[in-house]
Amino acid sequence: MKRAIGLDVGSKTIGVAVSDLMGWTAQGVETVKWTEPDYPVAFKRLEAIIKEYGVEIIVIGHPKNMNGSIGPRAEASEAFAREIESATGLSTVLVDERLTTMQAERMLIDADVSRKKRKQVIDKMAAVMILQSYLDRANR
Predict the structure, then answer these.
(1) Is the Cβ–Cβ distance between 93 and 58 less than 8 Å?
(2) What is the 3 state secondary structure string of 20-74?
(3) pLDDT at 1 over 80
(4) Are 42 and 7 in contact (CB under 8 A)?
(5) Which has the closest alpha carbon to 37: 18, 19, 56, 12?
(6) In angstroms, rounded to a whole number, what is the distance separating the alpha carbons of residues 29 and 73?
(7) To the nearest whole percent, how much of the chain has pLDDT over 90?
(8) Separation CA 126–CA 28 (nearest Å)
(9) What range defines the domain where residue 92 resides?
(10) 124 contact partners, CB below 8 Å, separation of at least 6
C-alpha cells in the first residue's frame, strides 16, 4: 500500500492527515492556513509534509452537493487536485466527503470539546475521515 496524505481543502484552511506505513489508519497531522487560490503558499507546507512522510498518493475531499451535483466547493477541490498534481508529480484521488465535516463536528461535540478547540481541529478531523474512508475502500 502506498503512503497517502488526506486533505480537507477549504478556502482558508486545509486539514491534513497521513496514513500509517501499512495503509490501515489515518492520523491527523495539522491544519495549513492559506487563502484560496494562493497555491504556492499551501504547497510549500504540503510538499514538506509529503516529503517528511514519504507520501506517494494524495487523497482530497470532494464536497459534492447532497444530490450528487458539483458545486463551487467541489470545483475548487478539483482545481486544487489538478494544481497539486502538477506541482508534486503525485497522483490524486477525489473522495466524496459530503458529511465528513458534520461527522467530525458531532464527534467533537460528543467528546465535549469546547467550541474554540473544535474550530482548531475540525479540518484536521475531517481530513482523517476523508483519508480513512479511502483506506477502508482500498483495503477491502
Answers:
(1) yes
(2) CCCCCCEEEEEEEECCCCCHHHHHHHHHHHHHHHCCCEEEEEECCCCCCCCCHHH
(3) no
(4) no
(5) 12
(6) 23
(7) 81
(8) 9
(9) 4-138
(10) 8, 15, 16, 17, 28, 29, 30, 31
Domain count, the chain: 1
pLDDT of residue 105: 85
pLDDT in tens, 52-100: 999 999 999 999 998 999 999 999 999 999 999 999 999 999 999 887 8
Which residue matches cell numbers 503525485? 90
Beta bridge pairs of residue 92? 58
Tell me: the pLDDT tens digits for 34-47?
A: 999 999 999 999 99
Q: Count CA atoms within 13 Å of residue 53 on its CB side.
A: 26
Q: How far apart are CA 23 and CA 131, in angstroms?
A: 10
Tell me the mean pLDDT in the region 18-31. 96
pLDDT at 99: 75
How many other C-beta atoms lie within 10 A of the C-beta of residue 28?
Answer: 20
CATH number, domain with residue 83: 3.30.420.140
Asked, as a colleague might, if the bond just before 40 is cis with ω within 30 of 0, I would say: no
- Burial (CB < 10 A; 0-12, 13-18, 19+), residue 40, is exposed
